[in-house]
Amino acid sequence: MTVTAPPRPRLAWQAYADWFGTARRASDNPSDRHNDKMTTEERVDNPLRAGMRSQRTPEPNTLVIFGASGDLTQRKLVPALYDLALEGLLPGGFSVVGMARRPKSHSEFRSEMKDAVARHSRTKPLQPSAWDAFAANLHYCSAQFTDPEGYAQLASMLEKIESETGCRNRLYYLATPPNYYSEITGRLGEAGLASSDDCWTRIIVEKPFGHDLASAAELNRTLLGVFAEDQIYRIDHYLGKDTVQNILVFRFANGIFEPIWNRRYIDHVQITVAESLGVEGRGGYYEQAGVIRDIIQNHVMQLLSLAAMEPPATFEPDAVRDEKVKVLRAVRPIPPEEAQDSTVRGQYGSGVISGRKVVGYREEERVAKDSAAETYLALKLLIDNWRWAGVPFYIRSGKSLPKRVTEIAIIFRQPPLSLFPSTDGSRIDPNVLSIIIQPDEGISLKFGSKVPGPQAALRIRPVEMDFRYGTSFGVAAPDAYERLLLDAMLGDATLFTRRDEVEAAWAFITPIVEGWAKAQPPRYPNYEAGTWGPDEADEFIERDGRKWRRL
Ligand code: BG6
Fold this sequence. Notes:
By secondary structure, this protein is an alpha/beta fold. It is about 35% helix and about 20% strand. The strands form 4 sheets. It has an 8-stranded mixed β-sheet with strand order 8-12-13-7-14-15-16-17, with helices on both faces. A 6-stranded parallel β-sheet has the order 3-2-1-4-5-6. Strands 9-18 form a two-stranded parallel sheet. The chain starts with 11 loop residues before the first helix and ends in a 9-residue tail after the last helix.
């Protein structure tokens, strides 16, 4: 769409544009605005920044956040927008409307957001002039999500903002508790806010997306009754992490890994999402979710699909998502009657993590004293296709573990013949390629090397070839929400989950949860906070003659 800019009175967003130096060279093509601000030296010294800057800038738009008083808005969304603004990546004519139940003035909302940004933004300290320019475009609309009047109020607020910016592109963000998703979607439709003729309207839906296959399918039907699939952006923040995106680059932009990325060379794969934090005041939500819904159904299934998918025909959103869905559909189901034996569940008791005493899960706020929610899960899954037949994927995730680390490890097969028997009779360690998603982002390859020395008995020790983002690029990666908000504004859905993808993940998870519901839960708590989960998880993998990686 072309944005024409007739002379207008000085407006709030222009203050923002002036601050970032965009208004002076405002052109009708917003896409080039920021690229020419980087010097050649900056591009060379700072490739990540140059990469982000060379992206298109979105068209002017208004972001409406439903659930503006919530944690997500304060910790992630508004800080990410502020950081994008500092990078010069938001368009002139960008505004935010926060919508929530509590009555509040625009200025109260701005001051709350200021505190949130000061605490949670990636760029510290807060830059007062940048904040003022950004905050001028923050608005607040107080309404009950169930009240049609609230949507009429929103509509008139949007019209007022849009009469100033001259642009009717709208992006809705559902950051409320999930029980409001259907209600808000329906109300937006009724109020005529779901489409606009010559501009775009999109909706971002936060997790949890349903609590089982039936509810996810139902939510999809509700959304699709009001919005078209290409207007819907189902978010999984793991896909916004640079290191997660790099899985595809690593596999498909390099010639040497893909030929060995299959059952002929790979013994097994381990995916670990370990968190050292507990439920952090989210006990009410976690009681209903457990780790299987909180982490496995979404983040882990995404990591799995990226690590295991076939190369897409192009890097277009649907080509990438077609391949992800295919691999998810090839995951061998775990039927309810096998759920108990094919998984290991755990729940933490009190313990010590990094010298800090922590309470057990059942002592957390809003958690039942006899809670059956699992805070740890280990499972093995198989992918029934030509690439992966017979290669187990071992998954583990838990809260209150000794450290925070997310890793995908590819453990290769041993050489066919052992020429170098070790002195103690044990086998030489296998080669391991480890993709560290966080916190010490990088990729390393472990291989055996001769220990230097003239001794007759040749000794071999594992060593590592290491790539670290920090060292190679020298810049901190942007927060996942920055990338995803920007992509949604640009209309690029590659890093968002499609309808069939979310349902394929639930189709695998749901029978497991159903199987657990029919069986006795384990005797909880069964691991101490600060340890690597229940002992049964070690026995589980050792039954296959393998071991969890020590991280
Ligand atoms: C969220 C979960 O989706 O991901 C949280 O609800 C979890 O329980 C968080 O702590 C982990 O995200 P990250 O980016 O810190 O790994």
